[in-house]
Write a structure and sequence with these properties.
- The protein is mainly α.
- The chain has one domain.
- The protein has 3 helices and 2 strands, in the order αβααβ.
- The longest helix is centred in the first third of the chain and has 18 residues.
- The chain starts with 12 loop residues before the first helix and ends with a strand.
Length: 79
């Protein structure tokens, strides 16, 4: 299902840079196949650094983390 956001403002260069930073962090975190509680907290901190979680950030997390958790390729540490 494609979700459209007709009233959404276009992403700025700063937004795109933030997304690339987030992508790099997440890719490094998932490389070993395990996300620890500290790593998850760090990702949350990066997402919420500007006070909001954007749809683009959430989609990135969905693509890079949750899809791998669901397929069994990535494990989340629980404490």
């Amino acid at each position: 299902m494609k979700i459209e956001r007709p009233n959404a403002a276009p992403l700025t260069k700063a937004d795109l840079s933030h997304l690339e930073t987030l992508r790099s962090i997440v890719e490094n975190v998932v490389a070993d196949g395990l996300i620890t509680n500290d790593e998850r907290a760090y990702i949350d901190q990066v997402i919420w650094a500007d006070g909001e979680a954007t749809p683009q950030e959430l989609n990135l997390v969905q693509d890079l983390i949750w899809s791998k958790v669901q397929s069994g390729d990535l494990v989340l540490e629980w404490s």
